[in-house]
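Box 4.2: Ligand-aware structure prediction
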Amino acid sequence: MDNKRVYIHTFGCQMNVYDSDRIKTILAGCGYLSCERADQADMIIVNTCSIRHKAEQKAFSELGRYRKLKEKNSQLMIAVGGCIAQGKAQEVLRRAPYVDLVFGTRNINRLPEFIRAIEETGSRLADVTPEADYIDSLDEYPVAPPSAVSAFVTIMQGCDNYCTFCVVPYLRGRQESRKPAAILAEIRALVERGVREVTLLGQNVNAYGKKEGVPGLRALLEEIDKIAGLKRIRFTTSHPRDLSDDLIDLFGRMEKLCNHIHLPVQSGSNRILSLMNRGYLREDYLTLVSKLRKNSPDISITSDMIVGFPGETDQDFSATLALMEQVRFDGAFSFKYSERKGTAAAALPARVEEAVRTSRLQILQSLQEEHSLEKNQSWVGRRATILVERVNENNNADLTGRTSENRIVNFPGPPELTGSLVEVVISGAYLHSLRGQL
Ligand code: 5AD
Ligand code: SF4
């Protein structure tokens, strides 16, 4: 039988990137090779995100582009997965009548069965029923492409935090952790294929193992650290409430653990933090930052921020800016609050006007740009160790890699260095990257 070709378009977070790689691996098992162009595919999968309204809009408009392909080729199968599929399966079927399959965030392992059913019956199918033991199906892990230097590994799924703005607990389910043995086996297999850096993924990675009573993230990191051939370990995302001293202690001490933490603060106002149900005060956050820096002075700290949460006053917003001035984040993702149906915040009074949200976002982003640039400039003239990831796409004479602090560095060098750790001297700084010399 000839191989069929599958094209996957991924929206949203790193979890979705990981899921898409798993989908590729699962489908390879039933004869689908992945391809780079939608118009060459026998099957198109859109892996969607619901985190904000804009993400949903983007996914629906992407889907709209495939209508024409379906009109030209009635054999083409179009599937929708991810968070929109999970939350709005019927709406997807209604808005996109050319979609054949809608599957959920916790039944990806059943894709071959769904495809067979559609081929046999010729009818559309929507099944988003979460699999009871879905976490164990993650042990059928993605096969990394042979050239990958860095790979994601999901160590937990779902979230129990119920931040009042967030849809994740509703669409990704409750928090569950994978077993350490399965994670270690997956990382060993990645290293055998040439991977040198892993990023452990979860909505709240520092709560790893809490519910299951297995040893926590620190113990897991200590085991991963022993894997020969692996050079770097990262993890994301950490929740300030669950960041314990024993984890903070590892930075600067465990050689393979990178000197970067993504620790979203969301707001600098205690009143808003409480309405968000974040479970910490700005003072707690600032204490974590000083502990982290005391342990490892150069540690890169990045954050997510939301502006225009319901009830956010000018004073609350100023408190966020003041916190940013105090911390001086190495980088931050910032967003206008987006109301998500079914979340607790959607019922809160005092919506912030769109124009106010827009202006606050601009103010916050320009402040962050100042800080990002300043932090990048502080590296000029210093030495840094880079894990070389690839030849630069825009300039073949350059290699691209990252410092332990997660800064992108471009520098001239031979392609053979891909996958190795090299020392460079930083010679230039931009907003989103650094320039270096071997
Ligand atoms: N509106 C705006 N931003 C949101 N985020 C999550 N939910 C929303 C929402 N409803 C942001 C948070 C989170 C990041 C992944 O997305 O900052 O940390
Ligand atoms: Fe988007 Fe959250 Fe779903 Fe990831 S888990 S795809 S960020 S809604």
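In the box above, the bound molecule is 5'-deoxyadenosine. The chain is about 35% helix and 20% strand.
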